[in-house]
Amino acid sequence: MLKTLYKIFRIGVVTENLPQNKTTAFERLGDSCKKIVDAKFSGSLAIRQIDAGSCNGCELEIQALNNPFYDIERFGIHFVASPRHADLLLVTGPVSRHMESALITAHTATPNPKLVLAVGDCGASGGEFGCSYACAGAIANVIPVDGVIIGCPPTPISLLQGILELLNQTKK
Amino acid sequence: MPNHKKTHEQFLQLLSSKLGLVLAYDLPKLSAISILHLPSEVWQLAAELTAKLQYRFVAIWAQDLDKNFELNAGLELHGSYLLLRTLIEVTKPTIAAFTPYFPAANRLERHTHDMFGINFSNHPDQRRWTRHQAWGEKQFPLRKNFPVEQASSETTPSDNTYPFTHVSGSGVYEIPVGPIHAGIIEPGHFRFQAAGEDIINLEERLGYVHKGIEKIAEKRNINQLIKLAGRVSGDSTVAHAWAACMALENAMNLKVPERALYIRAIMCEHERIANHLGDFATVANDVAYTFAYYQLMRIKELWLRLNAQIFGHRLMMDCIIPGGVNVDLNSKHCQAIREQIKNFRPELEELYAIFEENSGFHDRIKTTGTLSIEQATRLGVPGYVGRASGHKFDLRHDAPYPPYNKLKTRVPVFNTGDVLARLRVRAQEILVAFELIEQLLDKLPDDSIYTQWITPNTTIEGIGLIEGWRGEVFVFVRIGSDGLVERYFPRDPSWFSWPALEQLIHGNIVPDFPVCNKSINGSYSAVDL
Fold first, then answer.
1. What is the pTM of this model?
2. Chain B residue closest to A65 (CA)?
3. Residue pairs spanning A and B at CB distance below 8 A
4. pLDDT tens digits along A5-43
5. CATH architecture entry for A2-169
6. Interface subset of A 25-84, CB within 8 angstroms of B
7. Domains of chain A by residue range
8. Stretch (H or E) spanning A117
């Protein structure tokens, strides 16, 4: 136990002030997000992530938002297990036809007013997979979408940037 | 190095005597793999004999050759691979199954049925696998006459008529989970039958993220193919892109510059380290050991940032191209990698010692989700899942491809087969990967990173085999005389680790399922294709 405590003490909190001079600085983005989350969502934005056919690349980067460096929860943004608890659906694609109905069900289960972000090049446009007998392509082909975050996969910084842009457009 | 000729002699002798004819022992080769053409009537005999001789099942896949289907079965013994081939008439598409002899063939044969309409007559499980409701029972997407475009724009109904195994009895109940899971993970369905907390049976139903990868690969040029290969499973982008490139390069007899191969291997080890760190962290998180989660995710993030700095992409996507790589390492890069390893090695050793002393952590993962040595052998599970159950096979060691044939490597193996053993294997494999990267940097040859791809003027075929972080990635590629893809078949090791999960969960409690599942971490995308 002492070794654990020693390690915790020595490493400390790594949650970071990312590059200050860049326009995409994570903390500045996060601060802006937090202000909007406070004002428009009573301090807490609940996200339900849905993989509707992804290759798992986007999921790795979305998971990274919870790692100690980004720690997105400090901005009032957290991931929830049920669409019924969600304000925002973060959907990765392309939408496989085998996931089409499940995605629609999850979207229907999300209470209004709800927001939908299509994540990744595949979520935005179908990406490398496009439309076929197996894929319905972009998320917007299956459910209404409020914004997209491009990238293959988008980095944690572009994910937060995309969330911020959407929140900026959102009416209270 | 394995002796290919000698290894398969016994099988050929047995087969010759059973058939009452003489087979040439010097088999022709496809990408250094011995290949044997058989009439379809002896397919079952071949399965029976190879099973008896304890071959490991590697893959089964088909191709539509207009009037015939060509069926291929890949097998391995002592690091030496054997490819069996037969032709089946399109009008009578029925053949014996490998599954009665190799349980690992089960889902791949059902996949082959769903995609080609080939019937495996004595297959013990005649239910569909990859097919849900996106196409009909009499339609087969990988036949050449099946159009790649969608048939209708109507919403595909959910697949709620799949005949799951039924278990009944006093106090027995079912828990359906998924396809959408609670975390930030891929979709799939798990059907549990439980009594109290104890799991009686688990049945996996996958195929939800079927993206038609094998079909949409057809008619692509090779650069487009490698882009797609890098997205078979985003977490294994290096392993799959490399295996596909290796298949192409083998098919063309293209000599890739040494430096390019070294850089590919450095990337592949980087990918292994990142995924092992992340999975160890999330297994710990599943049993509420947040200290381990915090520390390992911290190291993983720093590791990904190094990737971004050196390779221009956190996951190293699209860095491997046919003929080489498109990123070079300069002395600063090499120094940065060495520094990172110098920092992380003692840190991880310190952390491993702390994890090993934590009785609360061990209480949850020791004897949890045990895959016995016999089960692992029977299922032929490669990768860390096999190596945690005493199955010592690692391509880098047992059938080393360049540049691993020039490196010294060791294979950590544990025998208890529980979640703890799988974590220990992965913890040790990170340290081995550090050693390999250091050797690769020490020996990094000073030549070019790319050689020009030459479009073939005839049909070519090749096989690629890479030890990815999940284990053996097997890829078959066939390119037509127009230089376009005719067949791409990537076989991820997850085809075999998923069935292992169904086995090892017996005797465990429902709340331990997430930690068991995470300790295996099969890819959904790479098996749903």
1. 0.94
2. B301
3. 169
4. 888 888 888 776 654 544 447 888 888 888 888 888 888
5. 3-Layer(aba) Sandwich (3.40)
6. 49-64, 66-69, 79, 81-82
7. 2-169
8. strand A115-119
